[in-house]
Every structure is written in C-alpha cells, then in structure tokens.
C-alpha cells in the first residue's frame, strides 16, 4: 500500500455500466493513464469502483494527464490520512481553509461516506462532527446544505480521503475500446474535431493527409503534422501518413468537368484511403464533413462519396453547426493551428459553380472516365514529397483488417 499522503481519485461513469466487460474497460483506462503519464513516476491502483493514482511527485502533470484521458468522468486530488480522528480533524480544517479561499461564498457542506462499517462513526456523525469543528476553527464559515460555496468530501475506506470539488473529465470511453479508424486529416478546422470526437468514443486512430505539392506548400504539410501532434494529447500513438495527390488533381483537370472536380477528388480520396486502411487495420474512415456546409456536403454529394467508399465513412460532425465545431476546435486546442493561412488542395482547385445535386449515374460515369485506378494505387503506395520522414504505415496488410484483399 502506498504511504503517500496525496492521491488522485478517478471516477469513471459509462465504463462501469458495461457489465462483464467492465474489467477490460478498466484495464484499458489504466493503460491510457499510464500512456498519458509516460516518463512521470506514478502508480495506478483500482479499488471500490475507482482508480487511485499514487506515488507521484508532479501533481500538475498528473492533473493534466487525467484531464486529457477519455473515459474519466471526474477526478480530484485528495489528502489521505490514516484512520485516526485527530489526523482527520486537522486535515479537514486545513482543507476547508484552502477551499474557502477560492469558493464563491463562505458556506460549505460536508459529504461523508463510510464504506467500511467497522469505523466507529456513521457518515452522518462524521459530517456533523467535522462541520462543527470547521465552524469553530474558521468562524467566518457557515454550513449551507442546499447551496454551499464548496463541498468537502470525506471517504472512509482503508484510509480516509478528503477532497474538494472534483474537476470534470472528458467523459467518453478509453481509447482502445473500439476498433481502429483512419482519419482523413486536412489542415482545416473540421477534421481534427472529427478525430477528437471518434477518439472520445474509444477509437484508436491513424491519420491520412493528401498532399498536392507544389500546389500545396510544405507549410501545409507542417500544419497537418502540428494538428496530429495536438490530437495525440487525447488519442496517443496515431501514425500520420501523407500521400501525394498531385497526379490525381492533374488527371481530374484534364479529363473532368470543373463542376464535378471536387466530388471526383473525394471519390479518389475514399479509394486511396481504403488502400491505406488495409495496411493500418482501420475498419472505418472518418471525415470532418457536416451536412450542407459546402457543395460537396449536400445530401446527394455525400451519397455519391459514400457510394465510392469500400469502408464505412464516419462523419461525427454531420449534425453540428460551424459555431459548435469552432467552439470544440478552440476547446481542444486545434483552432489556432487550423486557421493558419496555408490553403489545402480542395480550396485551390474548387470550381466556381460546383454541382450541388449530383446525378449518381452521371458521377459514376465521370469517375470511370477518369480511369484513375492506377494513379490511386501509386499514390497509396508511396509518400508525398517531404513526408518520407513521417511514421510510415505498414507496407503490408494488417492482420486485423476486415477489408478483402481484392477489389
Ligand atoms: P476541413 O475543415 O476538415 O478541411 P472542410 O470543411 O474544409 O473540412 P472539405 O475540404 O470539403 O471540407 O473536406 C471534407 C473532409 O474531407 C475533411 O474534413 C477531411 O476529413 C477530408 N479532406 C479534405 N481534404 C483533405 C486532404 N487534403 N487530406 C486529407 N483529408 C482531406
Ligand atoms: Mg478543407
């Protein structure tokens, strides 16, 4: 047992609902906490439907890591004392003084829990006794059970844990709870948010960027790398792969009507992404599309794009307004990077009057005329210029991929 006198209590909600899978989910969450705290000494212990992070020196680093780990509902740093009334009293008064300093009012409430019934006082008796004691020691404070300025929680277990208001976690499921996805990561605002939201549902990710050098600059690629780094805060261990799409752009310009260009490009992206997904073991593609946001995101346009994809395409932003997306992008720290002014290929090649309600048969005919199968296979088989240094996706299919080997 740890001898430290401070620990982080970690509460997880959804994962405790999963019945028989519960243990597996807890282990994933513990694995993710260890991953977030790589290089920082600590221990994680599981007990009473909670996790306890112990034996650390750097509180701020632990708090930051827990705040970025999906699957955590709330966490709080607790003072820990042995089951000794004198030590409990002193710790309660000290903590009340600290919490009062930043509370909105000078009222408080004690929430006591006694999970070990061998402790001589009931929860109610503990709360009353500590309440009286704190008022006597800190006369400026008074008790308000309905609308307290702060709540001081006391849990009597193997030892006694005292803590103030917990910090909210990000919720969701620990990364690894779902099968792997492949995020189509552009330099824009939307796709990083889409990746974040799928990560929040437990999906491990790899990222795929279509680079069209020299039409898109080295800075555009660097921006995508930076976005991938920021996402790694929440979804660790994602690989970034950049493919060269220059030849495909050129083929579209030569052979297709301007109004169809964006949708044909998207069809080529879906096909190239499926080839990469085979190698990374992804079961689904993820995009930042949102219904009606641009011409290529009307219902008919999305129907066409979908019909060209071998894999399910997950679009977590489909029902979100741009303001909601921007708010999330700011909150997760990707917005400032996303708005750096390096245009991606879609903006560079966009037609003035793109088709809004594409005819499916006509679009499929245009895709056949493009005859881009070999170009797509070649793009998917290599790296974009300047991207060779990125962590490459495996050259051979992943054993876990469900995609058939021929198409
Ligand atoms: P974003 O803000 O994510 O760039 P967007 O609103 O600009 O999205 P589009 O440019 O039409 O919309 O792209 C729609 C989606 O297609 C993107 O969210 C992304 O998932 C994918 N995508 C577009 N361009 C690229 C690219 N160059 N590389 C990888 N994925 C891309
Ligand atoms: Mg874009």
Characterization of this structure:
- The protein contains 14 helices and 14 strands.
- It has 407 residues and is α/β, with parallel strands linked by helices.
- Strands 1, 2, 3, 4, 5, 6, 7, 8 and 9 form a nine-stranded mixed sheet that branches.
- The structure holds adenosine-5'-triphosphate and magnesium ion.
- Residues 184-186, 188-191, 208-210, 287-289, 293-294, 296, 344-346 line the site of adenosine-5'-triphosphate.
SSE order and pairing:
Blueprint: E1 6-11, H1 22-36, E2 43-47, E3 50-54, H2 59-67, E4 74-81, H3 85-102, E5 107-114, H4 123-137, E6 142-143, E7 150-156, E8 160-163, E9 167-168, E10 181-184, H5 190-200, E11 205-211, H6 218-231, E12 240-244, H7 246-255, H8 261-280, E13 284-286, H9 299-307, E14 313-314, H10 322-332, H11 335-338, H12 345-349, H13 360-370, H14 373-381
Parallel strand pairs: 5-6, 5-7, 10-11, 10-13, 11-12, 13-14
Antiparallel strand pairs: 1-3, 1-4, 2-3, 4-8, 4-9, 7-8
Helix pairs in contact: 3-4, 5-10, 7-8, 8-9, 8-14
Bound molecules: adenosine-5'-triphosphate and magnesium ion.
Magnesium ion binds next to loops.
Please name the CATH topology of the largest domain.
Rossmann fold
CATH architecture of the largest domain: 3-Layer(aba) Sandwich
3D shape: elongated
Helix content: 25-40%
Q: Strand pairing plus helix content: what structural class? A: alpha/beta
Each distinct ligand: adenosine-5'-triphosphate, magnesium ion
Low-confidence stretches: 400-407
- Find the CATH superfamily of the largest domain: HUPs
Whole-number tally of structural domains: 2
Strand content: 15-25%
The DSSP helix count reads 14
- Gap from first CA to last CA: 57 Å
Query: Could you state the order of secondary-structure elements as H and E?
Result: EHEEHEHEHEEEEEHEHEHHEHEHHHHH
Mean pLDDT: 91
CATH class group of the largest domain: Alpha Beta
Largest sheet: 9 strands, mixed
Would you report the number of β strands? Answer: 14
Our Rg estimate from Cα atoms comes to 27 Å
